[in-house]
Structures are given as structure tokens and as C-alpha cells.
Amino acid sequence: MAKWLTWTINLVILSALIVACGALYLQSASKKAVILSCSSELFDRQAQAEDGRYHLLVDVLFSAGNAQINYRYFNLDGSSAGMILMQGAVQSMAPNSMTYNVSVKTKTESDQVEKKHWPEHMKYLSYISSLHFSESGRHNLSLEILESDASKDYAVVLFQPSNTVCGCRVVNSRI
Known about the structure:
Low-confidence stretches: 14-30
Radius of gyration: 22 Å
Strand order of the largest sheet: 1-2-3-4-5-6-7-8
Order of helices and strands: HEEEEEHEEE
Oligomer: single chain
Number of helices: 2
Strand content: over 45%
Number of strands: 8
Mean pLDDT: 82
Shape: globular
Structural class: alpha+beta
């Protein structure tokens, strides 16, 4: 009986160590940063010729529960058309839908370009986030991974509420 008791205690200790190591691994894996470098072309169908065409670059960083999303807009000649930087926290990540929900606490908009010259997408993003900030002090957004290929470090991401789909280079991820 003593051998059986010793064997049972050793098995319980070993099981506890395995569970503890697994918990530590999951905790360290969940702290791994997600870095995406995304791009898209924007077209305003109502604008004349090239006046309504822009390039959008979105840099995404999720690290230790914090979130930073930098929307950078460029004219076709490469000159800046504006920038919106949002910072906040990752509220949740739904693994089954691969959706990151972010609560934005601060927003910085570029003042290098007059608002009337901003791309329509930038005007909308500024408007909707300002509306949310005035109502609740926060702006909620989501990033849904529509498709990804880890072997090519590539993902297709839907940004909401701006309803923007971007191709993204996965720089670092747990996607």
C-alpha cells in the first residue's frame, strides 16, 4: 500500500508540474506581440480622375494587451494625405472567428493636411471615432482575419467600423 501511495503522490506532483508548465507556456505565448503591416488602395468613385485615389498603409501592433493602430494615407505621388493614430487595449480575441476587438482610448490626427483635403475614408474614420469618443469616451473597433497563410507571412484583414479590407504582411504574430 505504501508503494501505491508513493506512486500516486508522484503522479499527482508530475501532473501538477505538467499543468503549471502548460499554463506558463500559454501565458508567455499570449504575450507575444502581433505586428501587421497592411496596405490597400482607396478609390472615391465620385471624385474626378486621380483626385479620389489614395494609398492606405495601416500598421498594427498588439503587445501585452495594448493596441496601436496607425492609419497613414498617401496621395498617388507619395506625398502624405494624412494620418490617424489610435491607441488602446485589446479587449478580446475570438479564436473561432479570428477577430481582435480593440477599445481605443486615444486618437491623434495629423494637422499637416487640411481636413477638406483628407481622403473620404480618413474623414469617415475621424468622424465615427469622434462620435464614439463624445458618446462613451472610447472608440471600439475590430480586426477580423479573413484569410491567412503563415508560410507566406500574409493575411487578409477586415477593419471595422471603417469596412476596409487590407492585405497585410505578418511581421510577428500568433495568428
